[in-house]
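does this look right to u?? MGD version
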Amino acid sequence: MPMRNYSEANCSVKTFCRMCSYRCPIVVLIEQGKIKKITGDKDHPVTKGRLCVKGSAILDLVYSPARLLKPLKKVGERWQEIDLETALQEISQKILSIKEKYGAKSVGVWKGESIDSIQSDICRRFAFAFGTPNIFSNDTLCAVSKHAAVKSVIGSYPTPDFQAAKCIVIWGSNPLASHFPLYNEIKDAKQRGAKVLLIDPRKNSFAKFADMYFPIKPATDGALALGIINIIIENKWYDEAFVKEFTIGFEELAQYARKFNPRYVAEETGISQDDIYQISKTIAESAPHVTYRVGVGPEHHDNGFNNIRAIACIGALCGCTDRPGGDMLEEPPALNSLVADVQGNVEEKPIGAEEYPVFYNHRREGHSIRAMDAMLENEPYPLRGLILTGANPVLTNPNANKVERALKSLDLFVVRDLFMTDTARLADYVLPAASFLERSELIRGGRPQSISLTKKVLEFDSCQNEYQFWSSLAKKVGIGQYFPWKDEDELNSWIIKPLGLSLEELAQKAEGHIYKAYNYEKFHKNGFETPSGKVEFTSDYLGKYGYEKLPVYRPAHYLSGKNKGQYKFILITGARQSKFNHSCYHHIPRFKKAVPWPLLEIHPEDAASLQLADGDLVKVTSAKGSLKIRVSIVGQDNILRGFLQITHGFDEVNVNRITLDDILDPVSGFPAVKSVPVNVTKISEDTGCH
Ligand SMILES: Nc1nc2c(c(=O)[nH]1)N[C@H]1C(S)=C(S)[C@@H](COP(=O)(O)OP(=O)(O)OC[C@H]3O[C@@H](n4cnc5c(=O)[nH]c(N)nc54)[C@H](O)[C@@H]3O)O[C@H]1N2
Ligand SMILES: Nc1nc2c(c(=O)[nH]1)N[C@H]1C(S)=C(S)[C@@H](COP(=O)(O)OP(=O)(O)OC[C@H]3O[C@@H](n4cnc5c(=O)[nH]c(N)nc54)[C@H](O)[C@@H]3O)O[C@H]1N2
Ligand code: SF4
Ligand SMILES: [Mo]
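got this back:
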């Protein structure tokens, strides 16, 4: 049985790390029911046992003395311990009374980055079965804008085929800090001769592995992409046969791209004309074996959606889509779905769906930034109760002061977490959650078209995992029939049933189960999953909602004159640091000691203009507020002049107190957290701060 009881056992179990969403294979050594040691799985063909620094700290997470182990209830200003059964009983009564007073839609469910795939579907199932469309998540700020943008061009979101790539374009991403397994794959590809390009306003720590680095002004990626498209078309470097047979809108794209001549693109992006030509030529020479890793860099801007669409057009134009070394289009496994049968229970759309229909159509959830208005101003209707799991929006959503006010205004706010966080502090109930080693879940397998099973190896009393929590709450609010599975094992067995594979068989496959061998060039037979069945350089689907049919480049708010003059600098936020995952792992003493607080990255000439020395204390002010932080003067080539950077996720200095929640991409509603107009002033040491 996959879910054996390890409490007395001496054994080793192969499972997966989930300190980030990549899930590297690990081996857990158990002695007398306690985890003794965790190592990378050396037998795994792709990761070969390599773990990043976070992967070496799993035990610091699960056995942390700071972990919440008892449910807490706020009584007045104080926390009181409460037994789990009573807590669930009280919460269910309050949810039902909100439902009676305002309707089920006034209760929301919010999941964070640490809860994904099947775990996230369990939360969704609860919401739909209860009758609310209001599911919120980190997906308002993460990857969905990019996924929906690329999907509008090629029908689905591709997996980079690093194994066979001859050219890899890292576009606004830092695999060394944020995607350790990808970094290893890219390094291996480079050893096989692949060229690696990096496009980023900061010479991030990955730059030393890139063959060519191009500093770009934030939010101008669309101009660069259209400039590349123009050069590729003018020189006839594109795949004419592919374009003719498998795409629509080529003529319109070619005509529009003509405006993006090298001189204009160089002015807009800050990349020289020679370099723009060089990037285009390198891509064209390696085509179709060119793949892209687009990060959150281009996404967190008010023109991110269309900029990423333009990037996606380059690959399609050069015939790289679904070709070896290009962008692989994986077919999903045929699984039983946790949402298909309950989605129809809810007729109304969630908060934000009217304003951002493309976001809604892609993700079938509400928009978390709009949710704040529903809490504070009952717009478009009241949101009075919220159950949040695995998220810390006070540190991760823009305009944290407003987020705090909104969450405080709720009639019922429940948080499930492993730790007391700045968000949990605002709750009425805080429930201790199980860590990833305390649940069993189905995950993508790490190889194309594969699926794996992670194993539960640990249990703490009162720390429920997602299935235990949502199914027990469902029973209490009268929707228990939607959670008929006795436990996760039964649930997982049901989900994989269409694969013709038992859970026991899957549990044995440490390298994952390939449900279908990957085939390239499926488009010959199936076309693409777009409305026309072809690659769409112009999209009638987007046009139908009043958006531009072409991937039109509009200069970002900070370049177009809005805010000009008032603010001297543009602040990039959220560059990943290898030890942390957003607000996670800051409690681990050795990580905290190494990086006690974030720093303001600043160009030496900008620092000189403000008479700043390394380590000086400054006040950074935006339209939403201000914060105090110390400066780190980086190298001359490490950041563009006029731009600054602060990483998010630190509670000591929460950069989201100054990010804006009202400059949003019109298609996806993603906030421009990587182009925040700010001023910087030096302040004296006695004003406080570290
Ligand atoms: N260690 C660690 N790993 C993580 C995470 C974490 O918090 N910590 N978070 C995980 C999650 S949820 C996500 S979404 C991913 C994100 O993964 P990535 O997208 O790789 O995130 P970063 O490593 O911050 O790299 C983003 C880069 O974009 C650059 N950039 C900023 N603005 C622009 C722009 O306008 N254009 C271009 N071209 N570049 C720009 C930044 O300077 C930065 O170097 O990481 C995941 N992995
Ligand atoms: N300014 C700025 N803000 C950003 C970004 C940026 O680049 N700049 N990036 C954005 C992105 S891409 C993302 S994905 C979001 C992430 O935003 P969030 O989803 O809010 O991410 P975390 O800070 O990782 O919060 C995760 C919480 O889950 C808890 N947790 C960990 N494991 C478990 C578990 O197994 N179960 C439960 N129930 N809880 C668990 C952790 O203790 C932590 O408190 O942040 C976004 N915010
Ligand atoms: S990249 Fe690091 S944190 Fe993420 S799964 Fe792998 S070892 Fe764990
Ligand atoms: Mo993310």
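The mean pLDDT is 96. idk if thats expected tbh
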